[in-house]
Amino acid sequence: MTSTAASATETFPREPVSARHARRFLRAFLAENRREELVEAAELALSEVVTNALLHAHTAFDVALSLHTDGGVLVEVNDGNPQIPVQRDYADQATTGRGMELVEALSADCGVHAHGDGKTVWFVIRGTGADDAQTLVTAWQIDVDDVLPADDTTKVVLLGLPPTLWLAAREHHDSVLRELALYAFEHPESAPPQDRLALADQARAWISEEVVTELGRLAAAAATAHRMLPEGHPSPLPDTPPELDVEMSVPADAPVAFGALQDVLDSAERLAVAGLLLARPGLPEIVAVRDWACEQAIAQQQGVVPTAWPGTQDERFTAAVHDRAQPSVPEWDASSVTHASRGVVAADDANRIVAISRLLAAALGWEVSDLVGRRVVALIPPELREAHVAGFTRHLTTGESHAIGVPLRLPVLRRDGTRIQCDFLIDQTKVKSGRTVYVAWIEPCQ
């Protein structure tokens, strides 16, 4: 640590306990300089910035503190990841995407800038916002440093983990866990307690950090990556190996955390279905891959032999309607699709087919009534399903729409298992309820 009476800087490692240590460092600095009235607001804002650094930057970070002549304090958090955090344009009722918005609400001024080897997130606290901090601190703060003891560890192996699917699942988990933290403050009677939220976030981090580390190791070794979608597809999904064997060293009592992750995410799914969170419910594959990972971690610590990820070729992913998803879109008129003289299919934001033209259904060997209600992956070759689910999940989570309005050529699966190359053009339509219908014009190639 370096410091003078009016400034101090300390470096913290990329460890969950660093969030607590950073807050203590800030408290001690403000107490030494007789600025105790700034503690609540400054701690809450620092917690948000540091938590984001731990969860997303994946590097060590510095906290620099300095007093302003007007009695305020400038707080700067420097990490080694130059990616600037994005403040998303969400509705007023949204319960996620508000990291910098929260900091802005508490501070007199704030900002972020990238530099050569990372970025700096900074804010100024001048005493205003202290009253709000007392109210907000419980709502926002999930302490990532409240973790299980790591004295006794065991090894867990996730065989054949699908990295593209897991990275998309991680984005979805980040979104719903952040929303759930705020919802838990406003509705504690119907949400998991804060300690369960912290355990769940720790279990999620164990898996995701190992996946990211392994992908980095393979990239450094120039290992062959797999293109998930055909050349020319505009998807931003990274090229990855089709599967990874991921080894984790976790505390001996980690089953408690993995059980909490399942319980907490199930709670979030139920709230999303009810429309109480901004996030859409997770697609079945997203739910299945995290259940598989959690159940493997729990079972292996009880002596069960590892079982590989079974993939998404199971009929339950194609035929069964996601039983936790909201009903289809009743206010949308499907007649323009049903009676179209061209090949066209429409799906809702739960990725279910809500209408298909007779011409296209016949070309694929189906009756219209047999396809409506099935999931879109029923028409996607098995080797492309995880990429489709990952891309669609990323679209729902981030709002990115790389494939909308872009001519595509992709194989389509027929009922008998054969494939035909087709030209696609996908559009999306918002309906009054705020939900989205996706319409794909599909023409078999000549």
Describe the protein in words:
This protein is α+β, with helices and mostly antiparallel strands and 446 residues long. The chain folds into three domains: 2-140, Heat Shock Protein 90 (2-Layer Sandwich), CATH 3.30.565.10; 153-311; 335-444, PAS domain (Beta-Lactamase, 2-Layer Sandwich), CATH 3.30.450.20. The chain is built from twelve helices and 13 strands. The chain has helices spanning 18-32, 39-57, 99-106, 130-140, 163-186, 194-220, 255-273, 284-300, 335-338, 358-363, 368-371, 382-398; strands spanning 2-4, 7-12, 61-67, 73-79, 109-115, 118-125, 153-161, 244-251, 344-348, 353-356, 408-413, 419-430, 436-444. Helix 5 packs across helix 8 (284-300) and helix 6 (194-220) crosses helix 7 (255-273). The chain starts with a strand and ends with a strand. The model is unreliable at 88-98, 129-151 and 322-327 (pLDDT under 50).
Descriptive keywords:
single chain; 446 residues; alpha+beta; Heat Shock Protein 90; Beta-Lactamase; six-stranded antiparallel β-sheet; five-stranded antiparallel β-sheet; 13 strands; 38% helix; globular
